[in-house]
Amino acid sequence: MNMNHRIAVVTGAASGIGRATAQLLSQAGASVVIADIDRDKGEAAAAELREQNWRAVFLGVDLTDAASIAAFAQACAAQVGAVDILVNAAGWGQNKPFWEGTPQLWAKLIALNLVGPMQLVKELLPPMMERGSGSIVNIASDAGRVGSLGETVYAAAKGGLIAFTKSLARETARHGINVNCVCPGPTETPLLFAVPEKILDAFKKAIPMRRFAKPSEVAEAVVFFASSQASYITGQVLSVSGGLTMAG
To answer: Is residue 248 situated within a structural domain?
Structure first.
């Protein structure tokens, strides 16, 4: 898999699946923009890649703020040029019953998991269309395919991201752009380990493979979709869940 001379943006790349994806894209030869709201961890992630003689830079972005997203896109254009690959890996949730949530919490969940990725795509899409090439990979969740206990609004946002992926794929195929979606099951990330132990045990027992995914295992699917090996694949949703979900 050769991604030399390709520029990739990975949101949420300071940790978890985003960081693992940035690592694999770098290994494949891409120049990677580490995009995250956490400057310290983001800078550290970019430095770690540069220490391996790979090309990486950190640029801060708050995906709940439209002005921050626009400024990020401008900084990308100025510092690295036109983006070839966009991976929307940033995401956040909070496990609690729906009726205990607040409109403020719902707004944050929807902004970060759905509206922010859409806004970033809108900013980075025009140059891809002008060139007639590009790859967008959205990381949703199997919660958005089959629902998840205690994550109703998060699941709604991720379900929206899945539908956005499919519709955008239809609109952009004629411009040589493929758009796909990876849906992780429970994965060993800071977000997962914020869930109560009792729920974690239930999750693990429900997974046929009886373990959680490693971030690198999800990243492998993301990088496949971003590569030339997936050049004739668009509008697809792939679960990486150890068999937890087998949605049609």
So the answer is: no
